[in-house]
Structures are given as structure tokens and as C-alpha cells.
């Protein structure tokens, strides 16, 4: 059992990078993080938040400038070699050699980790089985789908059965099926006792995999909660309607208001977009579509969406995920994150927001 009782613990970790034109950037600016053993812990944040830097620091690949970090009960600065013996690391950029088969890749990693030929072969066989790659074992990795390659990458990071596994955006760029395959593989690992620290830009990924989530922004933790707590703060599913023209906006507002059952309705007159949180997504969609049709109101778009990282960010920070650009909540989408094309909606300050709700919203919000 680690001294601190945590599989990963950071206190006030600072990492500075020198910027090209002089000056420096604090990629980690006092990061606090505590990961319980045997769990999946999500590190959720937009591009540039410091996720990869945190993983590289914890995996001893990068020295840091201040604070304290512990992995598997070992001090990362003082005992990097012992830390390395206890961890695995897999990333967005797979280390797989395309010219080799899946089995050959794993045997090669085994040899790199100084397993003898026989043990490397045995371990490769076990891992191929564990990650559902037995049938494809002797195919070239170049023939693998995205999901299969990530699983092979995961398998490679598990050669030494690490106590703590770092996964840096393991599903970024994968199609839904590939993501599902990787999620299953991660669940299997944790069932086997491994602790996983997983970085992601996807709220739904954190929701499905993580027991606990730390939201990170500009190198600092801005929230630490269970996925359910996080979703409660952000609010549930939303219905979104874009009126075809300004004259229909009021009618759309009323229809959405009825479906929202008296909840807050947010209107952005510029984009003619109206949205609100709903309890029953399908019932709400059916009702709004029916009402608007009955009233003859033209609609450009209507749909449902689940809360995204952008919604989390708006709620926690009052701005989108647009990295270093300070923006109000009404100024459209942040850059470069989010799995679906559902960003860009102005988010209103819903009811029941926590005391940390900083979301400003210049959109007109009306209680229906
Ligand atoms: N090698 C580097 N040199 C200078 N700045 C860097 C370097 N790596 C990352 N950064 C900066 O540090 C910040 C955090 O980056 P990173 O940890 O990669 O974030 P994330 O993984 O969350 O996208 C970003 O602003 C990034 O531009
Ligand atoms: Mg990264």
C-alpha cells in the first residue's frame, strides 16, 4: 500500500516550459491530484490544459520545477527508476511498429523490457488474449483498425503488469466502435487491479470509464468530483432548436419552455438558437417538434445533445474551452475539443448550479 494511500498523488506541481521568443509558460501551475488505488481516474481538460505534461511528469519522462509527486507510494523526483518499474504508459500516438504482426510487436516489447525470449512469447500470448487480439495476432499491424491498434498499444504498455497505467487520450481520433473497444479493454485492466490515470477531452468518456474526475484548466485542477456530481453541476440533456427566422423565435421559446417544464430557457437571438435542459429527451423532442408543426413555425434545426466538456467549462470557468482566448460564454465554441459537432451553443446559467457556477451568459434567459 502506498505511503499516502494513493496510487498517484501530486501536490502543487509546477512545470515551466521556456517559450521560444523568451519568457516561460507554466504548463502545470500547482497541480493537485489524488488517485485512489484500483480506480480509473479521469484527467479531463481541453487542448493545452496540461494533461500530457502531467502524464509525462508522473511517468518520470519530464522533470518538474516545484511541488511534490508520488506514484505507487514512491517519490517521483527521488526514485524515478523504481517508479518506472511500477508504471505503464500508452498514448495517443501508438508505439506500435506497423511492419510487424501484433504478436511480434508484443514479443519485441517484452524483449525491450528484458524478458527472456520464452517469457516474452508467453506474455505476448496472454496479452493478445486479454485484449481480444488472438485472431489478428499474426496479421501485420498495418492491417489493424484504429481500435485494434490502440488495444495493441495498451497491451504493449502492460507487458510488465504495471500497478499504475497512464493513458493519454487513448481514444482520440477513433471512431465510436474503436472507442468502445478501448473502453472495454480499460475496464478489463481495472478489473484486474491496475490503477488507470486517463486523460481525455471527452466528458462522455470520463463519464463511462472514470470513478472520479479531475477537471484541469491551465495547469490547475478546477474541479474534482465523481462523473455524476460533475454532470449534476452541468445539468442533463438539452433540447436545442434553431428558428428558421427571427419572427418564429418567440414561438420556439414558448414551445421549448413547455418541454422544459418551467426550467430555464436560454435564447441566443444572434443565432436564433433556443435551448433548455429536459428531463425526458425523447418526449421533449417529440413534443416540441409537434407543437411547432401545429403552429406552423419554421425550424432550421432541432436536436438533442448531451452535456459536453464545453458545458463543464462554461459552468466552472465562465468561458469555453478556447485555450488562451478569453471569451464570454456567448461568443461561440471553444477551439479544438469535443467529440461531436454540438459545440457552439450558448449555454445558459441553469438552475441548481453550484456556488462555483461562474457562467456568464449574455444571451437572454427567460424562465418559462
Ligand atoms: N515542449 C514544450 N515546450 C513548450 N511548451 C510546451 C511544450 N509542451 C507543451 N507545452 C505547452 O504547455 C501547455 C500544456 O500542454 P500539454 O500538456 O500538451 O496540454 P494537453 O495535453 O492538455 O493538450 C500548452 O500551452 C503547451 O503549448
Ligand atoms: Mg495532450
Q: In words, what does this structure look like?
A:
By secondary structure, this protein is of the alpha/beta class. The chain folds into 2 domains: 8-231, P-loop containing nucleotide triphosphate hydrolases (Rossmann fold), CATH 3.40.50.300; 235-367, no CATH class. The protein is 32% helix and 24% strand. The strands form 3 sheets. A 6-stranded mixed sheet has the order 6-7-8-3-9-10, sandwiched between helices. A hairpin with a 4-residue loop joins strand 12 and strand 13 (273-277). The chain is globular, with a radius of gyration of 23 Å. Mean pLDDT is 83; it is low at 323-368. It binds adenosine-5'-diphosphate and magnesium ion. Adenosine-5'-diphosphate binds next to strand 2 and helix 1.
Map the helices and strands.
Elements lengths: L7 E11 L5 E12 L4 E5 L6 H8 L7 E6 L2 E2 L4 H5 L2 E4 L11 H11 L4 H14 L15 H12 L6 E5 L7 H16 L3 E6 L2 H7 L2 E6 L2 E6 L1 H8 L3 E6 L5 H11 L4 E5 L4 E5 L3 H15 L3 E7 L3 H9 L46 E4 L1
Parallel strand pairs: 3-8, 3-9, 6-7, 7-8
Antiparallel strand pairs: 1-2, 1-4, 4-5, 9-10, 11-13, 11-14, 12-13, 12-15
Strand content is 15-25%
Order of helices and strands: EEEHEEHEHHHEHEHEEHEHEEHEHE
Total beta strands: 15
User: What is the overall shape?
Assistant: globular
Number of domains: 2
State the CATH topology of the largest domain.
Answer: Rossmann fold
Tell me the CATH superfamily of the largest domain: P-loop containing nucleotide triphosphate hydrolases
Question: Using only CA atoms, what is the Rg?
Answer: 23 Å
- Percent of residues in helices comes to 25-40%
Q: Mean pLDDT score, rounded? A: 83
Q: Treating each run of at least 4 consecutive H or I residues as one helix, how many helices?
A: 11
List segments where confidence is low: pLDDT < 50 over at least 5 consecutive residues: 323-368
Supply the CATH class of the largest domain: Alpha Beta
Sheet with the most strands: spatial strand order: 6-7-8-3-9-10
What distance lies between the first and last C-alpha atoms, to the nearest angstrom? 54 Å
Structural class: alpha/beta
Amino acid at each position: 500500500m502506498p505511503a499516502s494511500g494513493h496510487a498517484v498523488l501530486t501536490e502543487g506541481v509546477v512545470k515551466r516550459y521556456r517559450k521560444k521568443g523568451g519568457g516561460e509558460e507554466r504548463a502545470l501551475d500547482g497541480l493537485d491530484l489524488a488517485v485512489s488505488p484500483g480506480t480509473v481516474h479521469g484527467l479531463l481538460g481541453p487542448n493545452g490544459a496540461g494533461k500530457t505534461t502531467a502524464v509525462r511528469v508522473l511517468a518520470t519522462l519530464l522533470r518538474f520545477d516545484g511541488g511534490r509527486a508520488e506514484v505507487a507510494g514512491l517519490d517521483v523526483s527521488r526514485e524515478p527508476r523504481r517508479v518506472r518499474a511500477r508504471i505503464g504508459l500508452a498514448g495517443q500516438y501508438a508505439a506500435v511498429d506497423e511492419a510487424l504482426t501484433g504478436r511480434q510487436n508484443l514479443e519485441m516489447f517484452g524483449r525491450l523490457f528484458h524478458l527472456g525470449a520464452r517469457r516474452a512469447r508467453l506474455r505476448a500470448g496472454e496479452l493478445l488474449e486479454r485484449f481480444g487480439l488472438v485472431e489478428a495476432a499474426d496479421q501485420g499491424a498495418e492491417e489493424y483498425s484504429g481500435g485494434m491498434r490502440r488495444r495493441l498499444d495498451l497491451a504493449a504498455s502492460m507487458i510488465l503488469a504495471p500497478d499504475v497505467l497512464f493513458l493519454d487520450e487513448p481514444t482520440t481520433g477513433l471512431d465510436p466502435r474503436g472507442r468502445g473497444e478501448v473502453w472495454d479493454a480499460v475496464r478489463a485492466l481495472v478489473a484486474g487491479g491496475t490503477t488507470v490515470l486517463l486523460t481525455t477531452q471527452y466528458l462522455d468518456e470520463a463519464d463511462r470509464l472514470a470513478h472520479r474526475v479531475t477537471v484541469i484548466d491551465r495547469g490547475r485542477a478546477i474541479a474534482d468530483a465523481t462523473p455524476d456530481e460533475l454532470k449534476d453541476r452541468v445539468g442533463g440533456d438539452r433540447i436545442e432548436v434553431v428558428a428558421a427566422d427571427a419572427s418564429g423565435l418567440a414561438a420556439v421559446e414558448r414551445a421549448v419552455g413547455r418541454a422544459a417544464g418551467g426550467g430555464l430557457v436560454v435564447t441566443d437571438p444572434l443565432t436564433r438558437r433556443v435551448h433548455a435542459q429536459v428531463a425526458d429527451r425523447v418526449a421533449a423532442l417529440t413534443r416540441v417538434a409537434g407543437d411547432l408543426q401545429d403552429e406552423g413555425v419554421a425550424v432550421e434545426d432541432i436536436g438533442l445533445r448531451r452535456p459536453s466538456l464545453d458545458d463543464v467549462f462554461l459552468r466552472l470557468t465562465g468561458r469555453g474551452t478556447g485555450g488562451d482566448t478569453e471569451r464570454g460564454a456567448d461568443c461561440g465554441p471553444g477551439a479544438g475539443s469535443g467529440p461531436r459537432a454540438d459545440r457552439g451553443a450558448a449555454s445558459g446559467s441553469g438552475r441548481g448550479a453550484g456556488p462555483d457556477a461562474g457562467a456568464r451568459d449574455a444571451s437572454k434567459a427567460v424562465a418559462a
